[in-house]
Design goal:
The structure is a homodimer of 280-residue chains.
Chain A: E1 6-7, H1 10-30, E2 36-42, H2 46-62, E3 65-71, H3 77-89, E4 95-98, H4 108-113, H5 126-133, H6 142-153, E5 162-166, H7 173-182, E6 186-190, H8 197-202, E7 206-209, E8 227-230, H9 243-246, E9 252-253, H10 260-279
Helix pairs in contact in A: 1-10, 2-10, 6-7, 6-10
Protein backbone atom coordinates (compact mmCIF):
# COMPACT_ATOMS: atom_id res chain seq x y z
CA UNK A 1 0.00 0.00 0.00
CA UNK A 2 2.70 2.44 0.97
CA UNK A 3 4.20 2.15 -2.49
CA UNK A 4 1.04 3.65 -3.97
CA UNK A 5 0.56 6.73 -1.79
CA UNK A 6 -1.70 9.20 -3.58
CA UNK A 7 -0.78 12.82 -3.00
CA UNK A 8 -4.19 14.43 -3.12
CA UNK A 9 -3.79 17.13 -5.73
CA UNK A 10 -6.25 19.48 -4.23
CA UNK A 11 -5.67 22.19 -6.78
CA UNK A 12 -7.18 19.85 -9.35
CA UNK A 13 -10.25 19.39 -7.17
CA UNK A 14 -10.57 23.16 -6.69
CA UNK A 15 -10.10 23.84 -10.40
CA UNK A 16 -12.75 21.31 -11.37
CA UNK A 17 -15.19 22.73 -8.83
CA UNK A 18 -14.70 26.27 -10.11
CA UNK A 19 -14.92 25.11 -13.74
CA UNK A 20 -18.32 23.58 -12.98
CA UNK A 21 -19.60 26.91 -11.65
CA UNK A 22 -18.95 28.87 -14.84
CA UNK A 23 -22.02 27.78 -16.79
CA UNK A 24 -24.19 28.31 -13.72
CA UNK A 25 -22.89 31.85 -13.36
CA UNK A 26 -23.63 32.42 -17.08
CA UNK A 27 -27.22 31.26 -16.67
CA UNK A 28 -27.67 33.63 -13.72
CA UNK A 29 -26.17 36.45 -15.81
CA UNK A 30 -28.86 35.89 -18.45
CA UNK A 31 -31.39 36.61 -15.71
CA UNK A 32 -29.49 39.75 -14.74
CA UNK A 33 -28.15 38.23 -11.53
CA UNK A 34 -24.54 38.46 -10.43
CA UNK A 35 -23.77 36.20 -7.45
CA UNK A 36 -22.38 38.37 -4.68
CA UNK A 37 -20.34 37.49 -1.61
CA UNK A 38 -19.87 40.06 1.15
CA UNK A 39 -16.83 39.50 3.35
CA UNK A 40 -16.38 41.22 6.69
CA UNK A 41 -12.95 41.69 8.22
CA UNK A 42 -12.68 43.15 11.70
CA UNK A 43 -9.33 44.59 12.75
CA UNK A 44 -5.92 44.34 11.17
CA UNK A 45 -4.76 40.74 11.61
CA UNK A 46 -2.49 40.21 8.59
CA UNK A 47 -3.27 36.53 7.95
CA UNK A 48 -7.02 37.20 8.18
CA UNK A 49 -6.55 40.07 5.71
CA UNK A 50 -4.72 37.67 3.38
CA UNK A 51 -7.49 35.06 3.58
CA UNK A 52 -10.17 37.64 2.85
CA UNK A 53 -8.18 39.01 -0.07
CA UNK A 54 -7.69 35.50 -1.50
CA UNK A 55 -11.42 34.89 -1.28
CA UNK A 56 -12.19 38.21 -2.96
CA UNK A 57 -9.73 37.53 -5.77
CA UNK A 58 -11.14 34.05 -6.31
CA UNK A 59 -14.61 35.59 -6.67
CA UNK A 60 -13.38 38.16 -9.16
CA UNK A 61 -11.66 35.58 -11.38
CA UNK A 62 -14.89 33.64 -11.66
CA UNK A 63 -17.31 36.51 -12.23
CA UNK A 64 -18.71 36.57 -8.70
CA UNK A 65 -19.08 40.03 -7.22
CA UNK A 66 -17.39 40.56 -3.89
CA UNK A 67 -18.01 43.31 -1.39
CA UNK A 68 -15.24 43.76 1.13
CA UNK A 69 -16.22 45.37 4.40
CA UNK A 70 -13.36 46.28 6.70
CA UNK A 71 -14.24 47.34 10.21
CA UNK A 72 -11.97 48.85 12.84
CA UNK A 73 -10.52 46.71 15.63
CA UNK A 74 -12.48 48.54 18.37
CA UNK A 75 -15.99 48.00 16.89
CA UNK A 76 -18.55 46.60 19.34
CA UNK A 77 -20.52 43.37 18.94
CA UNK A 78 -23.68 45.44 18.44
CA UNK A 79 -22.11 47.54 15.71
CA UNK A 80 -20.82 44.42 13.95
CA UNK A 81 -24.27 42.83 14.13
CA UNK A 82 -25.81 46.00 12.69
CA UNK A 83 -23.45 45.69 9.69
CA UNK A 84 -24.44 42.05 9.25
CA UNK A 85 -28.13 42.94 9.39
CA UNK A 86 -27.70 45.48 6.60
CA UNK A 87 -26.26 42.71 4.44
CA UNK A 88 -29.04 40.32 5.52
CA UNK A 89 -31.68 42.59 3.98
CA UNK A 90 -29.69 43.67 0.92
CA UNK A 91 -31.20 41.68 -1.99
CA UNK A 92 -28.04 42.03 -4.09
CA UNK A 93 -25.96 40.16 -1.48
CA UNK A 94 -26.24 36.35 -1.66
CA UNK A 95 -23.59 35.24 0.79
CA UNK A 96 -22.04 36.70 3.95
CA UNK A 97 -18.69 35.66 5.36
CA UNK A 98 -17.42 36.98 8.68
CA UNK A 99 -13.70 36.21 8.79
CA UNK A 100 -12.76 34.19 11.87
CA UNK A 101 -11.30 35.11 14.34
CA UNK A 102 -12.71 38.50 15.36
CA UNK A 103 -11.01 40.53 18.13
CA UNK A 104 -11.37 39.07 21.63
CA UNK A 105 -13.80 41.68 22.96
CA UNK A 106 -16.42 40.77 20.33
CA UNK A 107 -18.94 37.99 20.92
CA UNK A 108 -18.10 36.02 17.78
CA UNK A 109 -20.85 33.47 18.31
CA UNK A 110 -23.50 36.20 18.56
CA UNK A 111 -22.14 37.77 15.37
CA UNK A 112 -22.21 34.44 13.52
CA UNK A 113 -25.78 33.83 14.70
CA UNK A 114 -26.85 37.18 13.24
CA UNK A 115 -26.15 35.94 9.71
CA UNK A 116 -29.38 35.04 7.91
CA UNK A 117 -29.44 31.27 7.32
CA UNK A 118 -30.08 31.70 3.56
CA UNK A 119 -26.87 33.75 3.30
CA UNK A 120 -24.74 31.64 5.66
CA UNK A 121 -22.53 30.35 2.83
CA UNK A 122 -19.64 29.78 5.25
CA UNK A 123 -21.77 27.51 7.42
CA UNK A 124 -21.13 29.16 10.77
CA UNK A 125 -24.60 29.44 12.34
CA UNK A 126 -25.77 26.89 14.89
CA UNK A 127 -28.88 26.27 12.82
CA UNK A 128 -26.72 25.57 9.77
CA UNK A 129 -24.60 23.17 11.85
CA UNK A 130 -27.65 21.26 13.03
CA UNK A 131 -29.29 21.08 9.61
CA UNK A 132 -26.02 19.69 8.34
CA UNK A 133 -25.76 17.22 11.23
CA UNK A 134 -29.24 15.99 10.46
CA UNK A 135 -28.49 15.74 6.73
CA UNK A 136 -30.70 18.55 5.45
CA UNK A 137 -29.75 20.52 2.38
CA UNK A 138 -28.09 23.75 3.52
CA UNK A 139 -24.58 25.16 3.55
CA UNK A 140 -22.15 23.09 5.58
CA UNK A 141 -19.02 24.79 6.93
CA UNK A 142 -16.65 25.25 4.00
CA UNK A 143 -13.56 23.44 5.28
CA UNK A 144 -15.47 20.28 6.30
CA UNK A 145 -17.30 20.35 2.97
CA UNK A 146 -13.93 20.72 1.20
CA UNK A 147 -12.55 17.70 3.04
CA UNK A 148 -15.48 15.60 1.86
CA UNK A 149 -15.20 16.98 -1.67
CA UNK A 150 -11.55 15.88 -1.80
CA UNK A 151 -12.43 12.39 -0.57
CA UNK A 152 -15.25 12.14 -3.09
CA UNK A 153 -13.00 13.31 -5.92
CA UNK A 154 -10.45 10.60 -5.11
CA UNK A 155 -13.17 8.05 -4.34
CA UNK A 156 -11.94 7.45 -0.82
CA UNK A 157 -14.57 5.24 0.76
CA UNK A 158 -16.16 6.52 3.95
CA UNK A 159 -18.97 4.02 4.62
CA UNK A 160 -18.02 1.58 7.35
CA UNK A 161 -14.56 3.14 7.73
CA UNK A 162 -13.25 4.40 11.05
CA UNK A 163 -12.64 8.14 10.86
CA UNK A 164 -10.72 9.81 13.67
CA UNK A 165 -11.18 13.58 13.84
CA UNK A 166 -8.68 15.50 15.96
CA UNK A 167 -10.14 18.85 17.03
CA UNK A 168 -13.67 19.86 17.96
CA UNK A 169 -14.18 23.45 16.87
CA UNK A 170 -17.70 24.54 15.84
CA UNK A 171 -16.60 25.29 12.27
CA UNK A 172 -14.29 22.33 11.69
CA UNK A 173 -14.04 19.36 14.02
CA UNK A 174 -17.70 19.16 15.01
CA UNK A 175 -19.24 19.63 11.56
CA UNK A 176 -16.75 17.35 9.77
CA UNK A 177 -17.52 14.65 12.35
CA UNK A 178 -21.24 14.94 11.67
CA UNK A 179 -20.69 14.92 7.90
CA UNK A 180 -18.52 11.79 8.08
CA UNK A 181 -21.16 10.19 10.28
CA UNK A 182 -23.80 11.08 7.73
CA UNK A 183 -21.67 9.31 5.11
CA UNK A 184 -21.79 6.19 7.29
CA UNK A 185 -18.29 6.33 8.72
CA UNK A 186 -17.75 5.29 12.34
CA UNK A 187 -16.46 8.54 13.79
CA UNK A 188 -14.25 9.17 16.82
CA UNK A 189 -13.99 12.77 18.04
CA UNK A 190 -10.64 13.49 19.73
CA UNK A 191 -9.37 16.70 21.32
CA UNK A 192 -7.00 18.18 23.87
CA UNK A 193 -8.40 16.05 26.70
CA UNK A 194 -8.11 12.78 24.79
CA UNK A 195 -5.91 10.27 26.57
CA UNK A 196 -3.71 8.14 24.30
CA UNK A 197 -4.36 10.08 21.16
CA UNK A 198 -1.69 8.13 19.30
CA UNK A 199 -3.46 4.84 19.97
CA UNK A 200 -6.74 6.27 18.72
CA UNK A 201 -5.15 7.64 15.54
CA UNK A 202 -3.53 4.23 14.95
CA UNK A 203 -7.03 2.74 14.64
CA UNK A 204 -8.11 5.19 11.94
CA UNK A 205 -8.80 4.42 8.29
CA UNK A 206 -9.36 8.15 7.81
CA UNK A 207 -7.51 10.80 9.85
CA UNK A 208 -8.79 14.38 9.83
CA UNK A 209 -6.40 16.77 11.57
CA UNK A 210 -8.02 20.02 12.69
CA UNK A 211 -6.16 20.75 15.86
CA UNK A 212 -4.07 23.85 15.07
CA UNK A 213 -0.67 22.51 16.19
CA UNK A 214 2.15 22.46 13.62
CA UNK A 215 3.40 18.98 12.60
CA UNK A 216 1.46 17.48 15.51
CA UNK A 217 0.37 14.19 13.93
CA UNK A 218 3.38 11.88 13.79
CA UNK A 219 4.26 9.39 11.08
CA UNK A 220 4.23 6.34 13.32
CA UNK A 221 0.68 7.17 14.45
CA UNK A 222 -0.66 6.45 10.98
CA UNK A 223 -2.06 3.01 10.21
CA UNK A 224 -0.54 1.86 6.90
CA UNK A 225 -3.05 2.59 4.16
CA UNK A 226 -4.97 5.28 6.01
CA UNK A 227 -6.16 8.45 4.27
CA UNK A 228 -4.83 11.60 5.94
CA UNK A 229 -6.62 14.93 5.54
CA UNK A 230 -4.82 17.90 7.03
CA UNK A 231 -7.06 20.89 7.72
CA UNK A 232 -4.45 22.62 9.86
CA UNK A 233 -3.01 25.96 8.88
CA UNK A 234 -0.41 27.17 11.31
CA UNK A 235 2.04 30.06 11.19
CA UNK A 236 4.56 29.57 8.40
CA UNK A 237 2.11 27.58 6.27
CA UNK A 238 2.64 24.42 8.26
CA UNK A 239 -0.08 21.81 8.62
CA UNK A 240 -1.12 19.78 11.65
CA UNK A 241 0.35 16.64 10.08
CA UNK A 242 4.05 15.87 9.82
CA UNK A 243 3.66 15.38 6.09
CA UNK A 244 7.08 13.94 5.31
CA UNK A 245 6.81 11.40 8.11
CA UNK A 246 3.22 10.42 7.33
CA UNK A 247 3.19 10.30 3.56
CA UNK A 248 4.84 6.91 3.13
CA UNK A 249 2.40 5.12 5.44
CA UNK A 250 -0.74 6.85 4.19
CA UNK A 251 -2.58 5.60 1.10
CA UNK A 252 -3.59 9.19 0.38
CA UNK A 253 -2.59 12.50 1.96
CA UNK A 254 -3.20 16.22 1.48
CA UNK A 255 -0.17 18.51 1.55
CA UNK A 256 0.08 21.91 3.27
CA UNK A 257 0.32 24.53 1.78
CA UNK A 258 -1.87 24.11 -1.28
CA UNK A 259 -3.86 21.60 0.69
CA UNK A 260 -7.45 21.74 1.89
CA UNK A 261 -7.37 25.56 1.62
CA UNK A 262 -7.96 26.00 -2.13
CA UNK A 263 -10.90 23.58 -2.03
CA UNK A 264 -12.33 25.49 0.92
CA UNK A 265 -12.35 28.63 -1.20
CA UNK A 266 -13.90 26.78 -4.16
CA UNK A 267 -16.60 25.50 -1.77
CA UNK A 268 -17.32 29.05 -0.61
CA UNK A 269 -17.75 30.15 -4.23
CA UNK A 270 -20.03 27.19 -4.92
CA UNK A 271 -22.20 28.04 -1.90
CA UNK A 272 -22.43 31.66 -3.07
CA UNK A 273 -23.67 30.52 -6.49
CA UNK A 274 -26.07 28.07 -4.79
CA UNK A 275 -27.44 30.94 -2.69
CA UNK A 276 -27.83 33.20 -5.72
CA UNK A 277 -29.72 30.45 -7.57
CA UNK A 278 -32.04 29.89 -4.62
CA UNK A 279 -32.89 33.57 -4.42
CA UNK A 280 -33.18 33.93 -8.23
CA UNK B 1 -13.58 -4.32 39.75
CA UNK B 2 -16.23 -6.80 38.79
CA UNK B 3 -16.80 -7.54 42.45
CA UNK B 4 -17.96 -3.97 42.97
CA UNK B 5 -20.44 -3.54 40.14
CA UNK B 6 -22.75 -0.64 40.92
CA UNK B 7 -26.31 -1.15 39.78
CA UNK B 8 -27.28 2.40 38.94
CA UNK B 9 -30.43 2.93 40.97
CA UNK B 10 -32.01 5.32 38.59
CA UNK B 11 -35.20 5.66 40.59
CA UNK B 12 -33.15 7.35 43.29
CA UNK B 13 -31.76 9.81 40.73
CA UNK B 14 -35.25 10.53 39.44
CA UNK B 15 -36.67 10.95 42.95
CA UNK B 16 -33.91 13.38 43.94
CA UNK B 17 -34.40 15.40 40.76
CA UNK B 18 -38.14 15.67 41.33
CA UNK B 19 -37.65 16.49 45.02
CA UNK B 20 -35.41 19.42 44.01
CA UNK B 21 -38.18 20.83 41.82
CA UNK B 22 -40.77 21.16 44.59
CA UNK B 23 -39.49 24.39 46.15
CA UNK B 24 -39.07 25.92 42.69
CA UNK B 25 -42.68 25.06 41.86
CA UNK B 26 -43.76 26.63 45.17
CA UNK B 27 -41.94 29.87 44.38
CA UNK B 28 -43.63 30.00 40.97
CA UNK B 29 -46.99 29.38 42.68
CA UNK B 30 -46.46 32.48 44.83
CA UNK B 31 -46.22 34.45 41.60
CA UNK B 32 -49.42 32.82 40.37
CA UNK B 33 -47.61 30.65 37.84
CA UNK B 34 -48.30 26.95 37.37
CA UNK B 35 -45.72 25.28 35.11
CA UNK B 36 -47.58 23.64 32.26
CA UNK B 37 -46.55 20.91 29.84
CA UNK B 38 -48.62 20.23 26.73
CA UNK B 39 -48.24 16.76 25.29
CA UNK B 40 -49.39 15.85 21.80
CA UNK B 41 -50.17 12.29 20.84
CA UNK B 42 -51.03 11.48 17.23
CA UNK B 43 -52.82 8.22 16.53
CA UNK B 44 -53.45 5.20 18.69
CA UNK B 45 -50.10 3.50 19.23
CA UNK B 46 -50.52 1.85 22.64
CA UNK B 47 -46.94 2.26 23.89
CA UNK B 48 -46.89 5.91 22.86
CA UNK B 49 -50.17 6.37 24.72
CA UNK B 50 -48.59 4.76 27.78
CA UNK B 51 -45.53 7.05 27.65
CA UNK B 52 -47.70 10.16 27.34
CA UNK B 53 -49.87 9.01 30.21
CA UNK B 54 -46.82 8.37 32.41
CA UNK B 55 -45.52 11.86 31.65
CA UNK B 56 -48.89 13.42 32.44
CA UNK B 57 -49.17 11.51 35.71
CA UNK B 58 -45.65 12.52 36.71
CA UNK B 59 -46.60 16.17 36.12
CA UNK B 60 -49.74 15.85 38.21
CA UNK B 61 -47.95 14.28 41.19
CA UNK B 62 -45.53 17.22 41.29
CA UNK B 63 -47.98 20.08 40.80
CA UNK B 64 -47.17 20.69 37.13
CA UNK B 65 -50.20 21.23 34.94
CA UNK B 66 -50.43 18.95 31.93
CA UNK B 67 -52.54 19.41 28.85
CA UNK B 68 -53.03 16.27 26.82
CA UNK B 69 -53.85 16.76 23.17
CA UNK B 70 -54.82 13.63 21.28
CA UNK B 71 -55.07 13.90 17.53
CA UNK B 72 -56.49 11.35 15.08
CA UNK B 73 -54.18 9.08 13.09
CA UNK B 74 -55.13 10.67 9.77
CA UNK B 75 -54.27 14.27 10.66
CA UNK B 76 -52.02 16.07 8.13
CA UNK B 77 -48.60 17.59 8.82
CA UNK B 78 -50.13 21.05 8.33
CA UNK B 79 -52.94 20.39 10.81
CA UNK B 80 -50.45 19.07 13.36
CA UNK B 81 -48.26 22.16 12.90
CA UNK B 82 -51.31 24.38 13.36
CA UNK B 83 -51.96 22.68 16.73
CA UNK B 84 -48.33 23.25 17.73
CA UNK B 85 -48.53 26.90 16.75
CA UNK B 86 -51.56 27.40 18.98
CA UNK B 87 -49.49 26.10 21.90
CA UNK B 88 -46.51 28.24 20.85
CA UNK B 89 -48.52 31.41 21.39
CA UNK B 90 -50.45 30.28 24.47
CA UNK B 91 -48.77 32.08 27.40
CA UNK B 92 -50.03 29.51 29.91
CA UNK B 93 -48.12 26.68 28.16
CA UNK B 94 -44.41 26.48 29.05
CA UNK B 95 -43.36 23.25 27.41
CA UNK B 96 -44.50 21.30 24.36
CA UNK B 97 -43.83 17.62 23.80
CA UNK B 98 -44.75 15.88 20.56
CA UNK B 99 -44.65 12.16 21.28
CA UNK B 100 -42.32 10.30 18.89
CA UNK B 101 -43.04 8.50 16.59
CA UNK B 102 -45.88 10.11 14.67
CA UNK B 103 -47.67 8.17 11.89
CA UNK B 104 -45.58 7.58 8.75
CA UNK B 105 -47.45 10.03 6.51
CA UNK B 106 -46.56 12.97 8.77
CA UNK B 107 -43.31 14.92 8.31
CA UNK B 108 -42.11 14.50 11.89
CA UNK B 109 -39.05 16.71 11.41
CA UNK B 110 -41.21 19.59 10.14
CA UNK B 111 -43.53 19.16 13.12
CA UNK B 112 -40.61 19.15 15.58
CA UNK B 113 -39.17 22.27 13.95
CA UNK B 114 -42.50 24.07 14.46
CA UNK B 115 -42.03 23.96 18.23
CA UNK B 116 -40.90 27.35 19.56
CA UNK B 117 -37.35 27.02 20.91
CA UNK B 118 -38.29 28.48 24.32
CA UNK B 119 -40.90 25.71 24.72
CA UNK B 120 -38.83 22.85 23.27
CA UNK B 121 -38.47 21.13 26.65
CA UNK B 122 -38.02 17.75 24.97
CA UNK B 123 -35.04 19.07 22.97
CA UNK B 124 -36.16 17.95 19.52
CA UNK B 125 -35.56 21.02 17.32
CA UNK B 126 -32.43 21.26 15.19
CA UNK B 127 -31.63 24.63 16.76
CA UNK B 128 -31.87 23.09 20.22
CA UNK B 129 -29.57 20.28 19.11
CA UNK B 130 -26.95 22.72 17.82
CA UNK B 131 -27.10 24.99 20.86
CA UNK B 132 -26.57 21.90 22.95
CA UNK B 133 -23.70 20.71 20.73
CA UNK B 134 -22.02 24.09 21.11
CA UNK B 135 -22.57 24.10 24.88
CA UNK B 136 -25.16 26.88 25.14
CA UNK B 137 -27.76 26.85 27.85
CA UNK B 138 -30.97 25.46 26.37
CA UNK B 139 -32.95 22.25 26.68
CA UNK B 140 -31.00 19.18 25.60
CA UNK B 141 -32.96 16.12 24.50
CA UNK B 142 -34.33 14.48 27.62
CA UNK B 143 -32.90 10.97 27.32
CA UNK B 144 -29.32 12.19 26.66
CA UNK B 145 -29.66 14.67 29.53
CA UNK B 146 -30.91 11.83 31.74
CA UNK B 147 -27.91 9.69 30.85
CA UNK B 148 -25.57 12.47 31.91
CA UNK B 149 -27.57 13.14 35.07
CA UNK B 150 -27.18 9.48 36.07
CA UNK B 151 -23.43 9.60 35.47
CA UNK B 152 -23.14 12.82 37.44
CA UNK B 153 -25.17 11.39 40.30
CA UNK B 154 -22.84 8.39 40.54
CA UNK B 155 -19.76 10.51 39.85
CA UNK B 156 -18.77 8.50 36.81
CA UNK B 157 -15.89 10.42 35.29
CA UNK B 158 -16.30 11.49 31.68
CA UNK B 159 -13.27 13.71 31.05
CA UNK B 160 -10.58 11.89 29.08
CA UNK B 161 -12.64 8.68 29.02
CA UNK B 162 -13.51 6.89 25.80
CA UNK B 163 -17.27 6.83 25.31
CA UNK B 164 -18.73 4.63 22.60
CA UNK B 165 -22.27 5.54 21.58
CA UNK B 166 -24.18 2.96 19.57
CA UNK B 167 -26.97 4.58 17.58
CA UNK B 168 -27.16 7.98 15.87
CA UNK B 169 -30.75 9.18 16.07
CA UNK B 170 -31.39 12.93 16.21
CA UNK B 171 -32.93 12.73 19.67
CA UNK B 172 -30.58 10.21 21.26
CA UNK B 173 -27.31 9.07 19.70
CA UNK B 174 -26.30 12.38 18.13
CA UNK B 175 -27.10 14.65 21.07
CA UNK B 176 -25.66 12.31 23.71
CA UNK B 177 -22.44 12.15 21.67
CA UNK B 178 -22.18 15.92 21.59
CA UNK B 179 -22.93 16.18 25.31
CA UNK B 180 -20.27 13.62 26.18
CA UNK B 181 -17.84 15.50 23.93
CA UNK B 182 -18.70 18.71 25.74
CA UNK B 183 -17.83 16.97 29.00
CA UNK B 184 -14.40 16.19 27.52
CA UNK B 185 -14.89 12.52 26.75
CA UNK B 186 -13.35 11.10 23.57
CA UNK B 187 -16.47 9.98 21.73
CA UNK B 188 -16.93 7.30 19.08
CA UNK B 189 -20.24 7.30 17.22
CA UNK B 190 -21.23 3.80 16.03
CA UNK B 191 -24.26 2.68 14.05
CA UNK B 192 -25.67 0.05 11.72
CA UNK B 193 -22.86 0.52 9.18
CA UNK B 194 -20.08 0.18 11.76
CA UNK B 195 -17.72 -2.66 10.94
CA UNK B 196 -16.43 -4.64 13.96
CA UNK B 197 -18.76 -3.06 16.46
CA UNK B 198 -17.68 -5.52 19.14
CA UNK B 199 -14.06 -4.40 18.88
CA UNK B 200 -15.07 -0.77 19.18
CA UNK B 201 -17.24 -1.45 22.24
CA UNK B 202 -14.33 -3.36 23.80
CA UNK B 203 -12.34 -0.11 23.80
CA UNK B 204 -15.00 1.82 25.69
CA UNK B 205 -14.79 3.15 29.23
CA UNK B 206 -18.40 4.29 28.82
CA UNK B 207 -20.92 2.45 26.65
CA UNK B 208 -24.16 4.18 25.68
CA UNK B 209 -26.57 1.84 23.92
CA UNK B 210 -29.24 3.61 21.90
CA UNK B 211 -29.73 1.23 19.04
CA UNK B 212 -33.21 -0.20 19.49
CA UNK B 213 -32.32 -3.90 19.30
CA UNK B 214 -33.22 -6.10 22.28
CA UNK B 215 -30.25 -7.57 24.20
CA UNK B 216 -27.94 -6.52 21.39
CA UNK B 217 -24.84 -5.58 23.40
CA UNK B 218 -23.15 -8.79 24.54
CA UNK B 219 -21.38 -9.42 27.84
CA UNK B 220 -18.02 -10.28 26.32
CA UNK B 221 -17.99 -6.95 24.42
CA UNK B 222 -17.68 -5.02 27.67
CA UNK B 223 -14.24 -3.99 28.89
CA UNK B 224 -13.96 -4.91 32.58
CA UNK B 225 -14.73 -1.80 34.61
CA UNK B 226 -16.69 0.05 31.92
CA UNK B 227 -19.86 1.98 32.72
CA UNK B 228 -22.85 0.77 30.71
CA UNK B 229 -25.83 3.05 30.08
CA UNK B 230 -28.76 1.40 28.35
CA UNK B 231 -31.13 3.82 26.66
CA UNK B 232 -32.90 1.09 24.73
CA UNK B 233 -36.55 0.37 25.23
CA UNK B 234 -37.74 -2.48 23.09
CA UNK B 235 -40.99 -4.43 23.03
CA UNK B 236 -41.49 -6.37 26.26
CA UNK B 237 -39.49 -3.81 28.28
CA UNK B 238 -36.17 -5.18 27.10
CA UNK B 239 -33.10 -2.99 26.84
CA UNK B 240 -30.40 -2.89 24.17
CA UNK B 241 -27.91 -4.42 26.59
CA UNK B 242 -27.84 -8.06 27.64
CA UNK B 243 -27.97 -6.99 31.27
CA UNK B 244 -27.30 -10.33 32.92
CA UNK B 245 -24.30 -11.00 30.70
CA UNK B 246 -22.86 -7.48 31.04
CA UNK B 247 -23.39 -6.69 34.69
CA UNK B 248 -20.48 -8.67 36.09
CA UNK B 249 -17.92 -7.01 33.83
CA UNK B 250 -19.27 -3.49 34.12
CA UNK B 251 -18.29 -1.23 37.02
CA UNK B 252 -21.71 0.39 36.76
CA UNK B 253 -24.81 -0.46 34.73
CA UNK B 254 -28.39 0.75 34.29
CA UNK B 255 -31.11 -1.89 34.30
CA UNK B 256 -34.16 -2.02 31.99
CA UNK B 257 -37.01 -1.58 32.93
CA UNK B 258 -36.75 1.12 35.58
CA UNK B 259 -33.61 2.30 33.82
CA UNK B 260 -32.92 5.53 32.04
CA UNK B 261 -36.68 6.02 31.52
CA UNK B 262 -37.68 7.45 34.92
CA UNK B 263 -34.79 9.95 34.81
CA UNK B 264 -35.87 10.98 31.32
CA UNK B 265 -39.29 11.87 32.70
CA UNK B 266 -37.75 13.74 35.65
CA UNK B 267 -35.62 15.68 33.15
CA UNK B 268 -38.71 16.62 31.16
CA UNK B 269 -40.34 17.94 34.34
CA UNK B 270 -37.21 19.90 35.22
CA UNK B 271 -37.12 21.47 31.75
CA UNK B 272 -40.77 22.45 32.06
CA UNK B 273 -40.06 24.20 35.37
CA UNK B 274 -36.97 25.84 33.84
CA UNK B 275 -39.12 27.12 30.96
CA UNK B 276 -41.79 28.44 33.34
CA UNK B 277 -39.12 30.28 35.35
CA UNK B 278 -37.66 31.84 32.22
CA UNK B 279 -41.04 33.11 31.11
CA UNK B 280 -42.00 34.23 34.64
Amino acid sequence: MTAQTVILEVNRVATDMKEALKSRIDILAEKGIVPCLATILVGGDPSSATYVKMKGNACKRLGIKSIRIELPEHISTEELIAEIQKLNVDPSVHGILLQHPVPQHIDERAAFEAIRIEKDVDGVTTLGFAQNAFGFASFPSCTPAAILAIMDYYQIEMEGKHAVVIGRSPILGKPVSMMLLHRNATVTMCHSKTVNLEEMVRLADIVVAAVGKPNFIQGDWIKPGAAVLDAGYNAGNIGDVDYEACKDRASAITPVPAGVGPVTIATLLKHTVDAAEKLA
